[in-house]
Amino acid sequence: MNALLNRTAKPKASTKERFIFDNYLFNNTLQELALGDDVVKLSFRESALLKMLMEHKNQVLDRRMALDSLWGAIVSLMPGAWMCSFPNSASI
Predict the structure, then answer these.
(1) Could you give the number of structural domains in the chain?
(2) Alpha-carbon gap, residue 26 to 28, rounded angstroms
(3) How many CA atoms lie within 13 A of 9 on its CB side?
């Protein structure tokens, strides 16, 4: 029974602040990506997406799950178009 529960349990959110891959250093707390002495400041969503990709290294991510996680929206994908529906927004 425990083996079955372990397989279906959701992974815990990472509290890791720094990720290293190849010659890059990604600091999630500072939202910076560095290659040697070159440092690039990332936006909140760029940083969140990079962290998500690093936490799921060598895995295929579901696009809808990633978009929902990053934008907090219910995202519908239609051929040739993207439609985002924000649950807490009003139509104007």
Answers:
(1) 2
(2) 6
(3) 9
